[in-house]
Design a protein that fits this description.
Length: about 300
Amino acid sequence: MSSLLFLNSLAMLSFVFEFFALFLSFYFKNSRIFFVSLALLCMRFVYVYASLYQAHLFACLFLPFVFVLFALLPASNLVFEKRNLSKIAILIFVLILGFFLSKSTNFNAALSTKLFENLDFVSDIGLVFFLVLFIFFLIWCVLKAQIYLILAFVLSFVQFLFGLDAYPFFEFASLFFVLYMFYHSYKIMYFDRVTKLPNQKSLKRYLIGLENYKIFLLRFNELEAMQEKYALILLKAIARLLRKNFKNYKIFSLDKDFVFVVNDELVLKQIELFFSQVSFKLENEKVILSFALKSLSSKVSFEKLLREIKEL
């Protein structure tokens, strides 16, 4: 009984999270998630004028297609741009198709054709279509480093994959989008975009209530005078080395400097030894960077600490 209530409540929860994902994607200016969430929301209109089974048949065929299409179309920084009018037109066209096809006897009969006798799926043709799109979309997501989209794609289809077509339409993609956007905003707020290391805000938060620690600054002298594009390349390379070889230490990225918060000075010798043997490649040329390790005051306020770094 409780499981039935839970499954029936998933439709309303999905509906709420779709609106929430729509709001957050608009706020964070993520037009790709915005239009995918809008498509999930609009798909519910089919359930208004068609029976549950007929609407499921239509959704299991067209939902994966619209999801992949909106993910592949170029994303803009703003939702209300001319290029996004095509996505609105696609949604309107799909809803019009839904009005006619969901009530079409021939369409429903064709989608109800059994291809796999042992599978309890709302539409075997829809399953084949989903699998084909999944393989194509998976390759695209891996190549574009957009793995979160393939996860959301599967979560949008989870009701049909588990044969729960006796219940109102629900999905978990919108919940996943909400969690992803919160996590992404946290990463932007507390991590440096170039080095992927914790940033100034993370350092300030980490030092609160911390006792018996030492702070050291690692500065590469040539980075400040170097062209910005080359400096960014080297910063990324240095950060990769730090994450790989000094993972047991707390390292923070402040502009073009790296700050270590440690309990002892042993790390100083390790850093000196490591970077004295390291060289970098820049446009097929070997580059050796000179560096300086400087001790910072650990008994001052955070604002004074930042001023001390700037004055070095």
